[in-house]
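In these records, each integer encodes one residue's backbone shape. Here is one protein:

___
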Amino acid sequence: MINYIIIKIINTNKQNKFKLLSDNNYLTIIINIYNLNNYKLFSLIQKISNIISICDNIKTIYIIFDKTIQTEITHNKILTKLNDVLYKYEIDFFNYIKIINTEDISIQLMHELFLYKDITLKPNKSPKLYVNYILSRIPETYQYKLFNINKITDTHLTFPLIKAVGAGSINDSYFIHIFPQNKLLESNTQNKFTIYLIGKSVTFDSGGYNIKSEMSNIHEMKIDMIGSGILISVLNLIKLTNIDIHILLPVVENIIGSRATIPGNIVNSMSGKTVEIINTDAEGRLCIVDALDYIQLELTPDYNNCLILDIATLTGNVENITTYVSSIGINNTRGNKYLKHLIKIGENIGEYIDTIKLRKEYLDLLTDTHVADIKNVNTSFSCDCIIAGAFMNYFINHKIPWVHLDIASVSFKNDEVLSYGVHLIYQFIKTLI
């Protein structure tokens, strides 16, 4: 038997512009998919998008699946790609997946993609409002620590780089650590693999004093918390596992103000290394470094039984390298096998990752400052995604496996949030279980 999905569209009550297949004055589209590959998938997406763009009153779309397409990964791959087309047309279809013989995870995945895109596009996201959203979405099997960085009195947990990023905002900056229930920070669970997931959580990024050069698109910068949004949805898909999942989220607003960090300022990191902030628009890497320091100073990771993975819309430069086709992955030596595995998963589900090798010469471009240990950018070179990777790697103990994903090229395009990342990270963690 051939499986099918009914995708129901909210009735717009608009007149039919083109009568192709009509049923009570509502258009019905039937599309067959056989021997699916990426080319046909992209063609299908374009076909659906074209039809919807000219027909305002589509009531139902029938997507027909060949009976050979049965695996969870392939099924979810199709649904994820369809979500990218159908979300903007207010098509609520995840509830209707129940009518076919499919895993509950497909329904949950579609539900999470809708929630993820909703919060990403939501305007007026102050750090406090976004923190409240995150806390409301933490599964019952997890607990959290919340730090208000503007009110911290602890002498060693000051999160100085996040504080520098948020210095110009009237809103407080925060750091959230989400971890499994009944797990004490002082003691790692014996013989269990631990994955530390860091998600960039900048609720608005003006660039600070290095204000965005493309002022016409600055309204899009409400989406600069995509990394954290992905991880919250992944956590709700994975829930409790036999590995320890820790999520670290630096929530901050990067805008200009009377107290904003000035280019050239020097900040002492929690690890004791000094940072010259050459460019205030290179803020994501600063926030991630505070999370890296927190993991290494507070959580005492087991070097042989853990992974640090950060995911961020970090650099616009990555768009020029991959032309919106793939993300860029960077790793240290011990993280190499994990990035290779992520790349393999990405190939299978159509969420591609290309990689750039970190070389010592890249770090040399950042340590040539005369006033600090390292600077956050080198303005003489345009390939900033490599520079950002080298900067973050400088703060990581080389014994800890680390992978960085820069997804700025594949998570947002033409005012639309794409589904990239949720299915990828979910499948990756599943293979670690």
About this structure: Residues 4-101 form one domain. The longest helix spans residues 104-121. The chain has two domains: 4-101, 120-432.
